[in-house]
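Morning. Coffee machine broken again, so started the prediction first thing and wrote up yesterday's gels while waiting. Chain of 331 residues, entered below exactly as on the submission form.
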Amino acid sequence: MPGPVRAGQSGRLSHLARPGRLGGLGHLGRLSRLAGLGRPARRGEAGRLARRARDTGLVVLVAAPAVIVITGAALIVACSGSAQVSQGPAGGQGSSAASRQAGLSLAGTGRSLRTGSPAAGSSQADLRTSCREVMHIGDSTSEGMISPVYLPNPAQRLTAQYQDVGVHAVLTNIVGANSVAETLPGDTNGYNAARDVVAGGYHGCWVLALGTNDTADVAIGSPVSRLARIEQMMSVAHGQPVLWVNVVSILSSGPYSETNMQLWNDALQQACQKYPNMRVFNWASLVQQAWFINDGIHYTPAGYATRAQQIAQALAKAFPAKGRSKGCTVS
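Came back before lunch.
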């Protein structure tokens, strides 16, 4: 069965077609393949291709006191006020020494590690989380939260928001059209991405902003149920704290309808009763219609700024620095 018009990507779906790799993605080759598929463009594809073309081969690693930026072939390291430039991996191959020391191999747009201290004078000083490391896995509804185009002010972006509530290391795997079970040409799915991170030595908190594409895939006939997808991701976490972000749209029909979003949210609540390490952030109860763009799924810059801040605050409420949160739902 042909896949739905995916939110943020394109291509025919294949269920768990292959194991994925977090690093060494070769974005230029993927862009060429996507551009030459000879099929109608799907929702958000043009924008995503443009962003990937602009950002190909970019990984930013920040670890005080050094700042390490890998951009194509140049590796720039600034430490204690000094800077030096040396030759680094070309063609978007981002397996740097810094990332290997962190036990993680990272490359390409949407996959980055940043470490550091919370911003001074943070407005969220009263909200602190026990999570020192966070792995955020998301689809195109997370892309705007890390985009300098949508959010020119770095303080509004997702990493800074996590740091403001006490997170020291932020790792992201944010890819348009991401889902738990399906994989598209040149990409990996959320489940395999999570397994790759764990295999690289990650042992920390998780924020999972998936489900928008998953519930649409189920609606058009995927044999992998909504609950099974959630359970797959929970199995990778191995009991570590997991915050799911529930989903919402303002569409009245089609695979991405609000009715299908609510079915996914119902499955999250069902799963949460089974996993004591799981919480659900009720983003759907906070979002305003004015924050949606015309497609009814993605957000304006104001929407993404609020989404980043609210997700970080929800993490602090779900897994506070002191005590334990009660119940499954965080608002």
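The chain has one domain: 14-55+109-330. Going to sketch it on the whiteboard this afternoon.
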